[in-house]
Amino acid sequence: MHASSAAAPAVHYLNNEKTIKSWITTVDHKRIGVMYLVAVSLAFLAGGILALLVRTELAAPGETIMGPDAYNQSFTLHAVLMVFAFIIPAIPAVMGNFVLPIQLGAKDVAFPRLNLASFYIYLIGAVIALTALVVGRVDGGWTFYAPYSTSVGNGVLFITMGVFVMGFSSILTGLNFIVTVHKMRAPGLTWSRLPLFVWSIYATSIVQVLATPVIGITMLLLFLEKLVGIGIFDPALGGDPVLFQHFFWFYSHPAVYIMILPAFGVISDLMGTFSRNRVQGYKFVALSSVAIAFLGFLVWGHHMFVSGQSAVSSIVFSLITYLIGIPTGVKVINWVLTMYRGSVWLQTPMLYALMFLITFSIGGFTGIMLGVLAIDVHLHDTYFVVAHFHYVMMGGNVIAALGGLHYWWPKMFGRMYNETLARIAALLVFIGFNLTFFPQFIMGSRGMPRRYYDYLPEFEIFHQLSTLGSYVLGVGLFMILGYGIHSLFRGKKAPANPWGALTLEWTHTDSMPDPHNFHHTPVVTRGPYDYHLAPELFNDGVSGDGAGESAPEIVHRDTSEA
Amino acid sequence: MAQPAAGQPAHVKHYFVSSDQQFDAAKMGMWLFLITEILLFSGMFVAYTVYRVWHPEVFLAASDLLDWKLGGLNTLVLLGSSFTVAFGIQRIQKGDRKGLLINLGLTLLCAGIFMLIKYVEYAGKFEAGIFPGANFNPTGTYHGHDMADYADILFLPQFFSIYFVMTGIHGFHVLIGMGIFIWLIIRSYKGDFSPEYYTPIELSGLYWHLVDIIWIFLFPLLYLI
Predict the structure, then answer these.
(1) Which fold has domain B57-129+136-224?
(2) Residues 6+ apart with CB under 8 A from B191
(3) Domains in chain A: ranges and CATH
(4) What residues of A are in the B interface, CB distance below 8 Å?
(5) Which residues lie below 8 Å from residue A443, measured CB to CB, with a gap of 6+?
(6) Band of pLDDT at residue A434, cut at 50, 70 and 90
(7) What is the pLDDT of residues A43-54, one digit of tens each?
(8) What is the pTM of this model?
(9) What is residue B146's three-state secondary structure?
């Protein structure tokens, strides 16, 4: 093990080759992760600007800044970009790519060239989807329900093809990670010693591999429906639009877990590291990811309670939907227990983990409410649903992604960010997020329908609060962009292990890592969060001083009963 | 590119510890990929099942318009190609590079024959105005059937939507397979493969068997029942 030093190593993955060609042909998983970071950040920026436009339009009743057509296209494109080009690849493709092979003690993923190929496939898919903007008129929301989606303009041809192509990228990334976890683990790294981030990416990858082909064929059929009128989904030609909904949600509900499972992994790692404690109930937290991945395939019908499926199916889907609350609850309870028994260290990444506990729990509980048949009939297609899935996707995935980004930033770029600004930004994100979406629960339960361009005067106050919140959120996110870029050039040099974490990427690589990750293949002799063993095992390099503030003492507790 | 680790054969990539690890990883990746292929087709099989249950009489009438002899011949051709690709793997395991080349060539030939027969079937149907979905407009006679009898069967175009989409996507997979076999033939001509290293042939063989199996389901479902 090398000593923790503040100086970046002379040769690291960013400077071993400097030409542009070395970037566009790189097969290094860390560089591919960084390229994904740039790409998904751009998608997030574009989707975010669209969201701000949508909220601005809704700041007052009637036409504010755009007409109804532009409004419909804006929220549709916002959703498509955020779902397919941002959230799905965000954590797996950025942090999964960068961190997962190192956490496994591997030199790279199992198929590095395939990894690069999936990046380019993603880019091509995103470009095709964006072409729809120029071709015009995609305004049916991100769900593309037939036959409406095939009855307006040709934009849908591009957007479905874009989603189809991006799906391949998702499949190939998932396939790559599954094989990497199975075949590329370092000596001594047994399944019960895997970091929980690896477990969750593994579960995510299973969902990606099994669910994405179905959206692939669905998008292809929709494409052919529009192009040559094959009539599989069009009732005018004898097709069944409900079949489209089944196909669509068979992918898109598991896709929700593609979005949230990686977030669980990030939060588990953050909870362990910043509570200076072993993550309680390790096996339960690990296997609950797999359980969620499995159950996630059996609940798609809860999106279709009012679509005319049989009452019996609705009841079964509703019951299985409740079941998902169990493995999810297992995680949340164990995270809280980890903090309770640990010494909580409030660095910026941990602030996001705490935020996640609140926002994700609200999102999760309202999800169970929506799974109740009678309540769903009332709340279906209202702002309550919009608020619910934003609490899960943004309050879950994006908050966790921000936490993960702040956590691994020093490893990725060898620099610390400004801790004070980071805390202010985290506060702004938290306030802005809740101010944006909490009022939507209230107006939704009072009957404000989603996707509407205009609204009745009694909803005005909620819409105005929501719009105000979205601006606060925007300011917070732009602040992060600002100090992030600043830290790349002016940030304090990061030590190898600023957080005193115990997973391999912190203990066995420099900040920034060597092009081949490790100088010697590590041999793993303990669990990923064995902080109670730390003082004996690691006198050096695990104390960590974060952003100039020392980590709390590791308290010796007997955790054997956990 | 980095060199293989010390003491490893030339085909082992530097990020693998051993040839076995590399082979196991590649094989597992291929099996996962085949699962995604099955799921891709499963969507279409579900659509087939739904519409068959709804309109069994349509499927009965429409399958008369498919030529089971051509379909059966194609089944035999594909089965034969599955045999030659498996035999090719056995040949290279024994170190017989010429045998490998011959078998890969035969596989490519069979795939070509399959596509040719498929082309004959498609062309005949298009001539008789049998197009999928909205463009369905039967005229004249096809295989001794007066197409006027078929013009008014409700939902008949749907059968041909399913037929063209399923066989079309399957045919696309055959074309991809032909590309793969051309690449393998070039590589084995250059002498890239040996009893120690023939992973690409083994994996392409797996892919080709899957293409074969899917056809084995498509043939009876569409042509026979």
Answers:
(1) Four Helix Bundle (Hemerythrin (Met), subunit A) (1.20.120)
(2) B97
(3) 33-537 (1.20.210.10)
(4) 106-108, 110-112, 114, 171, 175-176, 178-180, 182-184, 209-214, 216-218, 220-221, 224-225, 228-232, 237-240, 243, 247, 516
(5) A383, A459, A462, A463
(6) very high
(7) 999 999 999 999
(8) 0.92
(9) strand
